[in-house]
Amino acid sequence: MAGIRIIGAIVGFLPRTMTTHQRTVFFVSDGTGITAETFGNAILAQFELVPRRVRLPFTDTVDKAHQVVRQINHTAELEGNKPIVFTTLVNMEVLKVIQQGCKGMLLDMFGTFVHPLEMELGIKSHHRVGRFSDISKNKEYQDRIEAINYSLAHDDGQSHRNLEEADVILVGVSRSGKTPTSLYLAMQHGLKAANYPLIPEDFERRQLPPALVPYRKKIFGLTISPERLSEIRTERRPDSRYASLQNCRHEVAEAEAMMRRAGIRWLSSTHKSIEEIATTILQEVRPERLSY
Questions:
Q1: pLDDT at 122
Q2: DSSP state, 105?
Q3: How many CB atoms lie within 10 A of CB 50?
Q4: CA dist 2 → 8, 87, 172, 192, 209 (Å)
Q5: In angstroms, rounded to a whole number, what is the distance separating the alpha carbons of residues 26 and 23?
């Protein structure tokens, strides 16, 4: 969370421009490059920019660094302006090659954040490549894999087993965003997220699925506008009763009424990204086991 706040603080000071520009952006890392891309895209989102993105992961030797420099400099010559280069390079010899030879605008995340923190904290960082130094021995990584497997096994009400292990249980009508949100929570935060569709039988009983009742405190509901739901379902099953606007209106109204009666927290996924939905769920459910 601290890292997100730091990025947010920087982003707040960046000027917004209304002109659309074309520019090449490189993401260079000696690991997967996910951190460089996440950081870089958060910054770039503040500008009316349509960049050409080039990912250069696993730049972990001096020879590879020289290849990267040649590619960046060639792009600079072709386009007539400086490419933007986001890096999260740990190897100082590799980074030095980029710093000395690159003709792009270099934004070194570790140099900007990690080194000042080392000085402030009085300790050295791990200076390791990637998030996990050895995945075979990393409990956090293994927990994350277990959470993904759990969420897949409990997708769309496939299983009622081990619901007591769930960190959160998502409910809502079919195609309201439960599955992608569950997988995002598992992959990004290591949470065991089950999800269950609310179906006509539940509406007739006017009750939650019986298997979920003992775990009411873990339940979070998703709803969606009937119009958007109809569009999504039409892509999957066109000209069906399932996708008809009338049926979608009925299901959404019944699901929202059920969640209100059950006292379940819920939100509409209509205009929200998966990241926004997941963040709201984390704020509301506040699971004890949470990783970043």
A1: 86
A2: E
A3: 10
A4: 10, 19, 32, 24, 39
A5: 10
Q: Are 31 and 130 in contact (CB under 8 A)?
A: yes
Contacts of 292 (CB under 8 A, 6+ apart): 1, 188, 189
Give percent of the chain with pLDDT exceeding 90. 62
Q: Phi/psi of residue 286, each to 5°?
A: 50, 65
* Beta-ladder partners of 170: 195, 220
Beta carbons of 70 and 100 less than 8 angstroms apart: no
Distance of CA 179 to the CA centre of its chain: 14
Put residue 143 in one of left, alpha, beta given phi > 0 → left and psi -120 to 50 → alpha.
alpha
pTM of the model: 0.66
Residue 7, pLDDT > 70, answer no
Residue type, 226: P
Q: What is the DSSP string of 250-261?
A: HHHHHHHHHHHH
Give CA–CA dist 291/188, Å, rounded.
8
In degrees rounded to 5, what are phi and psi of residue 198? Answer: -90, 125
First-to-final CA distance of the chain: 8
Strand pairing partners for 222? 267
